[in-house]
Structure formats: C-alpha cells, structure tokens
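Methods — Computational structure assignment.
A single polypeptide chain was analysed. Its primary sequence is given first, followed by the predicted tertiary structure written as structure tokens.
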Amino acid sequence: MKFDHLLHFLETARQEHLTKAAAILRTSPSALSYSIDCLEEELGVQLFQKKGKRIFLTQAGRRLLKQVPEVQRSVSELRKQVTEGQSGYEGHYRLGASHVLAETVLGPSVAALFGKTEAVTADIYSLNSAEVLARVLNEQLEVGVCFSPQNHPLVSAHLLHQGDLKVYVRPGHPCLKGALVLKRLGEYAAVLPKAFSGIEVCETHEVFKSHGVVPLARFAFNHYGVATSLIQNSDAWGFFPDWMAGLPGFPLKGVPLPATWKAPYTISAIHLNDRFMDGGLELLLKHLRKAFRA
C-alpha cells in the first residue's frame, strides 16, 4: 500500500469532491481518481460512492478514515528517527481563527513559518469563535484559534493568553470626564459581540450586574474591526478583550475600572484529541505561543 494513496484518500474524504481535492494536492483529477481506484482494488472494497458532483465515504471508507491518523503518526515517527529528530512537514492545512485573531496572529504566523516553502499550502478562515470550535469538531479544520472555547471532551486546548474583558471608548468620550464613569455607561449605546451558540450574551455578563452597569445594547457585531470603527466615530462604548489594546494602532481608550472588575477570557489553539499533528502543525502551535508572549 502506497502512503501517497492514503494521503490522496484522506484529502478526497475531507473535500468530498475530486476536483477540489486534486487542486489542493496539486495533481489532476484523473490521477487522483486512479490513486483511489488502486487503493480500492488493493483493499477489495469500495471507499466512495457518488451523488451528483459530490462523493461520499462508504462504510468501509469511514473505517479506513479512522485509521489514517495512526498511519500518519507511524510515518512521522519513522521520519524523525531517520532524520535524527528533525521535524519534516508538508501537505495542506486547514486553519481558522476568530475575527481579529485571524489577521493579527494566525495569518502572520503562517506567513512566517510557511511563506517561503512550497511544501505547505493552507486554507485560512476568519470566523466567529463558535464557528471555529464547530469546524474543528466537524474535522473541517486541523487547528483553530479562538476566544474562550467551550470545554469539549473531544477537543484539546492549548492556552495562548488569558486576560480580562474591559470597556473601551473613543478618546475624549464625555463619560471619561468626572467621576462615576461606570455608572454613566448606561447613558450611552453599547456595542456588544453578537451572541452565538456557546458564546455568552455580553449584555447580561455578571461583571455588569456586580458593578451596577445596565448596558444600553443598541449595536451587535461579529468582528472587532467593525465595532472599533463604530466606537471610534460615535459616543458608543464596547466590551473588548484587553489583549486588543496592545495591537499596533489600536485607537480606543480604556475606561478606568475598579480592582473588583473580573471578566476573564482566554485565547486558545484547539484541535481534535485524535488529530494527527505533524511537524508543521506542532511548529505552528509553538509559534503561536511565542506570538502571545512577545
């Protein structure tokens, strides 16, 4: 059994489309079809069934798919032993991150690690945090990076950063003048993250209740860049991860908060527990950790 045939099978199973899989693997659809035919002939079973332009795994195909990561681990270990521990990597990665994290952390990390090699191609998605988790669970992403992922028994989470959600306004905002800044927030429109499955509704966040703040929720967003632009050009205020205040050119000003303010969040890299993490993905995790320490 040729290892390339297994890799071709794996990408075809992921894409459920020969032409798309062939484009990712940088081969022709006919060559990919031949590779799968060879694998089916050798195993004596049908691995895919066609339905229109899509193809789907048969029961035998699903059984094989479960075994491919173990084969990949064995090959990776063999490669490390032969090359004296050097981490080889090649192939196609599907990566995703929460909005803002995708363009400020994940994209630059991929460019720094793989931008000068032809051994790696990648799809990179900018999503909301709930979508990142969902796509990891559905095996549509090898690695995701997101804010405060829910604990899940099938998912491994690598903590990259932890901090507090804080309140931000434009410089010169009228609520910054005088005392009782927090109490006065209710006088102005709040710009809060759009609620998604698994994401807490921020207007009812416990930290507001405990400090007597009643948000006037008028605007919802799914991208911090949109929220920043809106706040920058109005008297509205936003509820952002404090990590964002360290980004170059961040235009907003943090509202003074008491020592009792506690609104914790995390940023984590996530992947399925049984996902095969080759040298490239392991290197990406290390680079992401360093990116948040910088």
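Note: The chain has ten helices and eleven strands.
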